[in-house]
C-alpha cells in the first residue's frame, strides 16, 4: 500500500509533503439556475406585453412625468412634504421618547397621552381636521395673555392684551399646515421606535458615562442616542418610505401641489388614466430608491464600531448566485 | 514587588474615603448592613469576600451608581449625594452629583467602553464634554495615557477590534483621563482570559506605585498580597475583618475569612491556574457554608 501515492491530499500520505493552499470547487447550486431561467422567462413575457399592449402608452407616461405641474407637485408636496414631516417627526419623536423614559411623571404622562392620541387618529382624518375643522373652530388664534380678552371685556379695557394674531383660515390650507399634520402624526410612531432604540443600549453605557461625571443630558446625547441610532435607523427608513406615499393624503387638506393629485387630474382631463398612474408610480419608485441608498449609508455611519455592513465584506448577489468565491 | 507603605500619610490627615454605617437594601434583601471603612489618600485597599457579599454594591454606592438607605459616605470630606442643611439632608440635583463623580474613576468588570468611539475618543470624551478641555489638550493627554497603558498604537481602533485585556487597559486610561483622586475597580480582570490578566494587573500595579488611591474588588490573591496596603474582608454585608494583607491572608482571625481563603486556595491549585475568581456569577456562599440572607 505504501508504494501507491495517494492523490487526495491526505495529511498522512507518507510523501512528507504538507498540504498546501486550498483550491476547492464551490458547492453546485443547480436550482438557482432553474429559478433564474424561470424569472427570465417571466420578465421577457412582461416586457413583451409592454411593447405589444398599446394601452400602456409609456410615451405619454414619460411626458406626464415631465409636466410642469407634476414636477412642481413632486418637489413641493411629495419631496418637501416628506422631508419636512420626517424632520419634525424624528426630532419630536426622539424628544417624546426621552420624555417617556424620564423619571419626571409629568413629562412621561404628556408623552404617553400624545402617543396615544396621534397613533389613534388616521392621517387622512387628521389632515382633514387640520385643513377644514380647525379653521372653522378657530378662524384666528390670538397670542397674548391667557384669558386676556375675557378679562378686558369684563373690565371694559380698550387693550385686550393680544400681541399677535394668526389667521388660521389662511394658514390651515398651506403646505406648512400639511407638514405639521403629517409630522405630528409621525412623531407618535417615531417616539415608540426611538424608545425601543434607547432601551436597546446596555445600562453599563449609561453607568460608565455617569461614572465619568457626565450629567444625564450629555450622557443621552453623546453616549446613548448615538448607539440607539443603530436600532432607530432601519425602522425610520421604513417610516420615511411610508411618508413619501402618505404625502398623497395631503389632498385631504386640500393641497393640490402633490404628485398623485397632479397625475390624477391629468388622467381625468385626458381620459388616459393608465399612463398617468404609471407616471406617478415611476416617480414614487425613483424617490424611494434614492432614499434606500441614503438609508444604507446612514446605517453604515451609525454602525461604526459594531461591524456594520461595508466594514465586513460580503459577496455580491451575482457572485453568490453563481456560487463562486466566499464560503457558502 | 514590594508594597508601598506611606504610614506617615495614613493616620494623620482626614481619610479620602470615609464610609460610616452604610446600609443598602434591594427590596427586602439587605445587602449592606452597616459598613464602616476609611481609606486614606495614597492607600490601595482590596475588598475581598464571597460572591453576593456586597462588594460590588458597596463600590457602586461610593460613586452613587446606587443610592444608600442609611449611613454616610464622604469622599475628600464631601458628603456624597446629599447636602446637609442644618441637620436635614437634601438630595443633590443630577448636575451636582455628576460634579461629585468627576474625581472618582471607575473600572468595570465588563469594561463598558463606548463602542461607537475609537479608543482615543473614549479617552477624550469626558475631558472635552465635562471639563471643557480643548480637543487638542485632550488628545495630547489621551495619547500620553494610551502610551502609559501600552496601547499608543491602538488609538484609532474601535473597542470591538481590541482584545479584552486591551479594552480593560483603555477603560483604565479613560478613567484616568479625568485625573481622579480615587479609582474604584470592580473585578477588573475576572472577565478576561487567564493570559490577559497579567497585562491589566501590571497597569494597576504601576498606578498604585504612582500613589493613586485605589479600592479594588478582586479575587487575585497575589495582587492583594503584593500591591495592597490593606485588605478588607466582607461577608454577608458586613466587614468581617481587615488589616495588613500578610496578616489577614496568612493568619485570618475569623472562621469565615479562613473558609473563604481555603476555598480560593484550593481553586488556585485546581486547573484554574491564574484565573482565580474568573468564575463570576456562581454563588460560592453555598459551598463555603456561609449564608448571607
Ligand atoms: N440591582 C440589584 N437588584 C436586586 N438585587 C441586587 C442588585 N444588585 C445586587 N443585588 C443583590 O445584592 C447582593 C450583593 O450583590 P453584589 O453584586 O454586591 O455582590 P458581590 O460581593 O459583588 O458578588 P460577586 O463576587 O459575585 O460580584 C446579591 O445578593 C445580589 O443578588
Ligand atoms: Mg461583584
Automatic annotation (TrEMBL), chain B:
Principal subcellular localisation of the protein: membrane
Domain ABC transporter, first and last residues per copy: 17-261
Membrane topology summary: Peripheral membrane protein
Pfam families for this protein: ABC_tran
Protein localization: Cell membrane
Sorted UniProt keywords: ATP-binding, Cell membrane, Membrane, Nucleotide-binding, Transport
Annotated region described as Disordered, given as residue ranges: 265-293
Protein name (record): ATP-binding protein
Organism for this UniProt entry: Arsenicicoccus piscis
